Amino acid sequence: MSQLPTLIWVFAYLSLLTVGGGLAAFPELKFLTVEVYHWLGFQDLVHLYSLGQVAPGPNMMMVAAIGERVAGLVGAAVVVVAFFGPTGVLTLGVGRLWQRLEGWRWRDAIQRGLAPVSVGLLVAGTISLAKGALTGWHSMVISVVVFILLLRTRINPALLVLCGAVTGLLALR
Amino acid sequence: MTAPPTPVVDATLGQIFRVFLVIGATSFGGGVMAYLRSSLVEKRAWIDDPTFVQMLAMSQSLPGLNSTNMAVLVGDRLRGTMGAVAALAGICLPGGLMMVAIGMIHRAHGARPEAIAMLHGVAGAAVGLVAAVAVQIGRKVLTRIDDLVFIALAIVGVSVLHQSVLLVLAVVGGMGIWWYRPRTAALESPGR
């Protein structure tokens, strides 16, 4: 029960790091949930994040699964509110202010300057995920094939993740 | 039929919640933006295209996921703060419930050999997926060679020096904003 306040601050803090996408916060998500609080193992985190790619809606709903693991359904609800609440309030406030900032010359500088940093953070998140996910040559081949297919075709990514599951199963035999 | 620049629409809280619930339940495979656009702009005409693009740009430069930031902005535009809450709750609920269920199944059966084999495949595919997303976003963002420096600094800060994402965001982000700071009118285009 006493885990709830910790869950709240961890996920509220993580949410503020998701500039450019949820993946940007992945290295910090790993550090806090795996190394600092030992809520789950790195492999579990990698698996839940990967399974989260199959779920519809915002692509970080896997945080609900971490909350559930730590403190049951209440934990799941608390984590979702902590993760989406603070940025929601921020967006609400800035959204109303944004039009009034139309002529403010730093507005474009902020947009322009943060864009490449957010791409760098996405790549860093990918590296962190890959360290836990690419455990053998099977998963490496799957990742490369999926990468190429997604850049060259318009296949639904969720379908490819499911294909990855089937391929993994077939590789077992 | 010509749409006004900012459509004045009557959307009840219930309608907002339902529309975002459907988007949250059907947007399989990422790309929630495409689902949002087809539902909000094309099907319902709750917002027009320029507004959608402007909201998207705002969503991308603010912390928070693009999809949930969009839900907040559109919900607020339609029905104020409660509209934002309804939209956010709607878009998060289906995926959240599904992930809680998946998490429970993973905990109960994740240690079986078949499950481990499948999860290896899923994790491999997920790496390919997120790498492709990073490349696709990078292609859109990269317009000047200077950008490469900031991308590299962010990667080195997190992946090599193992600094916290917050510190890297503050330091490299601050440098980026300073690099693209507004110049005095005399140095830039003289027309402005």
Element layout with pairings:
The complex is a heterodimer of chains A (173) and B (192).
Chain A: H1 3-15, H2 26-36, H3 42-52, H4 62-98, H5 106-133, H6 137-152, H7 157-172
Helix pairs in contact in A: 1-4, 3-4, 6-7
Chain B: H1 13-26, H2 32-43, H3 49-61, H4 66-109, H5 113-141, H6 146-160, H7 165-179
Helix pairs in contact in B: 1-2, 1-4, 3-4, 6-7
Defining key terms:
heterodimer; A: 173 residues; mainly alpha; 7 helices; 0% strand; globular; B: 192 residues; flat; disordered N terminus; disordered C terminus
Could you characterize what this model shows?
The complex is a heterodimer of chains A (173) and B (192). The mean pLDDT of chain A is 91. Chain A has two domains: 3-133, no CATH class; 135-173. In chain A, helix 1 (3-15) crosses helix 4, helix 3 (42-52) packs across helix 4 and helix 6 packs antiparallel against helix 7. With 173 residues, chain A is mainly alpha-helical. Chain A is globular. Chain A has seven helices and no strands. Chain B has a domain at 1-109. Chain B contains seven helices and no strands. In chain B, helix 1 (13-26) packs antiparallel against helix 2 (32-43) and helix 1 (13-26) crosses helix 4 (66-109). At the A-B interface, helix 2, helix 3, helix 4, helix 5 and helix 6 of A face helix 1, helix 3, helix 4, helix 5 and helix 6 of B.
